Structures are given as structure tokens and as C-alpha cells.
Predict the structure.
Amino acid sequence: MPLSVCQDAAVPGPPTALTRSLVDGPSVLSGLEWHESVSSTNALAAAAADRGVPEVHAVLADVQTAGRGRRGRRWEAPAGTSLLLSLVLRPRAAPDRRGLLPLVAGLATAEAVAPFCPGATTTVKWPNDVLVAGRKVAGVLGQAAGAAVVLGIGLNVDWRAVARPDALAGATSLAEEAGRPVDRWRVLAALVGVFGNRYSGWAEEPGAVLDAYRARCATIGAPVRVGRTGRAPLEGTATGVSADGTLTVRTAAGAAITVSAGDVEHVRSADAG
């Protein structure tokens, strides 16, 4: 597998030995770019997809100036604190199965980071947030890029010295939960390895990957409030994740409603309508 690495930054990126082992070794990566500062790793990954890079091509950056989370929210993190990664995929599965890929990435991220926070429970929150001890540590954003798919992963590695705005007051980082420094390049190696296995599993047997997602999903069985654009919030209990990745919510009146997109908040039972 040819080496395809862009090191355009003064800030040190992944160690050369790690980069070569990921790109030339048995991992799923065909290429890796490292940038000191970009507008968005997803934007650069989409441009790379347009250039025809093979899967799985990775774009990493130390800082994003216009990173986005779900529903257009900004995703920002100070230099040196996070793992900001986007992957270019060219899945051969049917288009209707591609909607599961953000869930696959969320599951893989949760599984990869769990060993770095021993003793803490690591879960996924539908559709693709990762929680450690109930607090958000990572999020995934998927988007189409022509025939390709781009998956962006923003993971808080060490936010111990980061002042957070109110909107991020509930977020955490691996180092905070571990009570010690965490090497983000070790996290990268773990994430690439686990994602490769889960991506292959999704291509061969998506039901098994979904079963693993459901087993780690903190949303299933929880009272939830789902914000929906242009509609009243939906309140009830999340009862399951379907084969197409949608969430089923049962209201107090007994109606089962399928949710394909929306902001999900886990609420205390006494607060659920």
C-alpha cells in the first residue's frame, strides 16, 4: 500500500513511525494528511474525495476554524487538545445502508476509547455521540461527497485546561476521566484499528454491528426529549434502534414514533412528558 502523507504543519503531527505503520501496515488507511490548522477536516476530506483518493483516506488537523457538529453547530477545540479526524470512504454497499455509517463510527470510537478510561462506563448516545461516565467526549458527523462518504470524528483528548462555554459545560475529555494525560496518537492508532474492524463487519453483516451498537447505546430505554425542526419536541421513552438506524420513541399515550433525525436529550423520568 503506497504511502500518501501530507505534513504541511509546523506543529508536530502523528509520529512518522505510526503514520507509516498505519498507511503501509495492515490498517484500513491508504493515505493520511496532517494539517496544523484547517477550516474543516470534513471539507478537506470532501475535496480529497473529489480528487479521487482511494478509501480509506484520513485527514487530521490540530485546529479547525470552521468545524461543524450535527445540525450545523460549530465544533471548536484549542490546539493540542483533541483528535480531529475525517475519513473518506467509498462503500460498495447499497445506498440505503450508508446511513448506518455514522453509527458504526460512533460505536468504533466508543470501543476504542474505553480502555483509556478504565472504570468509567463508555456508551453511545443516538445517533452518534460518545459518552464517558454520561458526559460527551466525542461526536461524529457524516456527509455525502459524490459517490463517497465522509465521516468526521471530533474527540476530546485532554481538555483539563480548557475553559468551556455554557454550551459545552457538560462535555468531558479522556484525560479528565482517566485522571492522567492521554496520548492522542495512541488513541488514533486504537481508533483506526477498531474502526477498520467495524467497517468490515458492517459491509459483511450489518445486523451484527447494529446489535453491538444497541448493546452500548445509553439512549435505548431512557426517557428522551427529541428536538425537531419546525415541530414540537417529541417526549417519551426510546425503545430501540431499527435496522435502518432510526430511533423508536414511545410516547406516554402509547404511540410508537420513528425518528430519523433530531436533537436527543436524555431526561430524568420526572421531567419526561
In short: The CA atoms of residues 202 and 209 lie 6 Å apart. Helices lie at 16-24, 41-51, 101-113, 174-178, 184-204, 206-216. The chain has two domains: 5-216, 223-271. Confidence is low (pLDDT under 50) at residues 1-5.
